[in-house]
Amino acid sequence: MQVQLVRIAHARGGDKGDKADLSLFAYDAATYAVLKQVVSAERVAGHFAGIAFGPVERFELDNLLALKFVLHQALDGGAARSLRSDGLGKSLAAGLLRMEVEVPDGVAVRHAGPL
Amino acid sequence: MKTIRIGAGLGFYGDAWGPIAASIERGDVQYIASDHLAELTLAILQKDRAKDPQAGYAKDLLPMLAQLWPLAQRANGGKGVKFLLNAGGLNPHGARAALAELFRKKGWHARIAVVSGDDVIDCLDTFERAGESCAHMDSGAALSEVRERMVFANAYLGAAPLVQALQQGADIVITGRVADAALFLAPLVHEFGWRLDARTPEEWNLLAQGLTVGHLLECSGQGSGGNFGGLDWVDIPDLGHIGYPIAEVSEDGMAIITKAPGTGGRISFDTVREQLLYEVHDPRSYFSPDVILDMGSMQLQDLGEDRVRVTGALGKPRPERLKIVGGFQDGWMGQATFGYSWPQAWKKAERAAQIVQQLLREQKQSIDDVRIEYQGYDSILGPLADSAQRDQLNEVYLRMALRTRDKRVADGFGRLFPWLALSGPPFVGGRINMQPASELLGIWPMLVRRELVENAVIVDVMEV
Hints:
- The complex is a heterodimer.
- Chain A is of the alpha+beta class.
- Chain A has helices at residues 29-38, 41-47, 92-97, and strands at residues 2-4, 9-16, 19-26, 56-61, 66-71, 100-102.
- Chain A has one domain (2-98): Alpha-Beta Plaits (2-Layer Sandwich).
- In chain A, a hairpin with a 4-residue loop joins strand 4 (56-61) and strand 5 (66-71).
- The model of chain B has no long low-confidence stretch (mean pLDDT 96).
- The longest helix of chain B is centred in the last third of the chain and has 19 residues, at 345-363.
- Chain B starts with a strand and ends with a strand.
- Chain B has helices spanning 18-26, 41-51, 61-74, 92-106, 124-129, 160-167, 182-192, 201-217, 269-276, 345-363, 407-412, 420-423, 450-454, and strands spanning 3-8, 31-34, 82-85, 111-116, 150-155, 172-175, 246-250, 255-258, 286-287, 292-294, 299-302, 308-311, 314-316, 321-341, 369-375, 395-404, 428-449, 458-463.
- Chain B folds into 2 domains: 3-118 and 156-319, no CATH class; 326-444, Alpha-Beta Plaits (2-Layer Sandwich), CATH 3.30.70.
- Chain B is of the alpha+beta class.
- In chain B, 29% of the residues lie in helices and 26% in strands.
């Protein structure tokens, strides 16, 4: 089935200089295993085209059911020189949760219904 | 086994200190550690200091301690609560002078320590002579590109000078730039006698647990259910009276994250792991001046009732170089916002943006970049906004911003807008907001051998 990440995961974004970092958390181990498969660094880089212009790194934390993405050249040079309203890029976490992914039917949908 | 309870202070300059009162009065803490300095804050304080050499520290220190100090004296079984704060910013001695004046007026007494030596703006030549390139840590660009425009440069100091201040009996420790987590690690090292010059895996692991505690507490309410990034945010209780996180740490490094009874927010596996990974890049190699933390084996056990047990942090030897963050002048921003109503709100705003861009081109002004955003549609999400909504908006605000080397161009930018109210697309509503030029700063991170910085660090304690 096709599902938006916001229905099966939660996320937080942070900033350091021109780098944005995004943490993506599954609520259970089965969903985490699926996220590891489908939310690749390449997929995230494509998703943020036009926002982040450098490479994307991914780190896995099996013990916390979490993936970490580091987006380079993602903050218009960094918050103190950025022209963006969201200079710190904290809302990029919301941007990540908008991603539509294909997951097996068994994956637990935490939030069904209208957002 | 001996345990210590540390409460989170502020998470940034401008944060609320009301929740700290709850931690002091009901949270059974012995220490409050308060982080006033985000990466950008020194840029703000630098502007203050340029106007007034007595300024340059986080001024919220004064009203915050005016409220909290009397509470702190009665707390902890009458033994008092100690404070560690990086509110000194670019002028920790100025911060202490102002605080001392407040204490004298109130008739209060305290031993107030200042840790200084993080401000290395005048040491860059010395570093270069000592063989450090001071190149940009990520891009490798040479310092000479920005040297003349550099307005501050501060090293992230570790916990050692803070421990020294506590050993000298300080009740309040004021620092400039230190690693945020060092504010929390220092009391643990002081109380438990952990070795900062760790030599064994066991000793590194203790420091790693202490660093983790600091990292979990350094962002105030973000560690206790604030800014929670899932749809469950709506169920987190009573954010209006959020309790900032409190860590109960044992001598063996085991930590329980909790908060004061009767406060809002939530301490759970989900809220704690969100903060644990916040602004961490490689989780197996999280650098701090005192230890490198590997989170790969950490366990967070949700004990229920707003208690989470933290174990399993692994430590590796501290880095040989300290991180320094410099800020350099990087031009000026001019900006304006302008509102349009239905029908065709977005289309009108887009047309206005096109007209302004046309004028900019005709004026041939020196402009490096222009940004166009539609507030209420894509100003936060950018290209990830749902374009299907674009033509259905009730109203939208056009925001335009430009970056230029010429302050006059930035100042004059707003004047390209008001005439549009009568001579542009129809139904301008809302307030036209034209802002004066604001200075932009680029951030320049670099690495320098730690002894070059640490040899100049000074701790002094004053009795007020």
